Amino acid sequence: MAKPSQDIGVVSNRIGFNLRRAAAIFSADFTHAVEGTGMRQMLIGILSVVTANPGVNQGVAGRLLGIKPANMVAFITELIDTGLIVRDVDSIDRRAFSLRVTPRGVALLNDCTQRLDTLENELLAGFTDDEKVSFLDFLNRVTGSVG
Amino acid sequence: MAKPSQDIGVVSNRIGFNLRRAAAIFSADFTHAVEGTGMRQMLIGILSVVTANPGVNQGVAGRLLGIKPANMVAFITELIDTGLIVRDVDSIDRRAFSLRVTPRGVALLNDCTQRLDTLENELLAGFTDDEKVSFLDFLNRVTGSVG
DNA sequence: TATTGTTATACTCTATAACTATA
DNA sequence: TATAGTTATAGAGTATAACAATA
After folding, report:
1. Where are the alpha helices (DSSP H) in B66-102?
2. Residues in A touching B126 (Cβ below 8 Å)
């Protein structure tokens, strides 16, 4: 029996399309990896940026992650409601919010980071360390010009 | 004045997270690039795979693109309703559908392909040809094991 | 019994416009 | 008047379970 066609046509050599596919695969595996933690991809991103920048402004945090202000609201509300971050009114600009991670937030981020380490090692098992560095560099050259 | 922190923390060197970011950037630019055509990313993917494999089975087409059967239905319906593909009952397995692209579908795919060429050239302006080949190879090594 | 495709539905993330309260 | 955050809402893609028709 002939090998079934694996050709997906013109999109097969397009970086944009394959980027989406690869991200979708990571995304599905991410969901399973953090099952039971209540975390989602953008929540982890926010925990990460707030941990790295204590007291960071809400809008700045969103900008660093490519999240629009309108979409930050529900994420931040959820992180506060679950006790993972705290939000304070900025002392010199009362329109702005200053975000800080709680000890529980730090612990959860660490837990998820370990799980995601495992996931990346599995999904990138065929990559050498140098290739992983190049891959990350390529991705950052796409995102770096924006964030 | 000090350079504002650009550090997004532990996720900054994770390929999964940066994959999502890069895909999101491509996705937003994609939307603008094909504005007015009625196309969306997965519709283009389906047009592409059906063009490359005339008469392909609906489920196979979905599998090649990572689209679940349940999610194929609306996509296929839309492509038929807009006259871009046709669907025939498979002559030897009457449960299955055989898909074929119409001339209008071919023309639209070509139009979009050109627009997306331009987009990729812009987004990957800083990449050498060799780097683009490597980038695509990396992505295919993530997706290849699945699709 | 297993498979192809379908329906229904919920979830995650993204986008836009109109709004408030401060600056 | 501009900015920080908000509300409301729509769109795109993905996930699961239960189902009908056919194999």
Report:
1. 69-81
2. 141
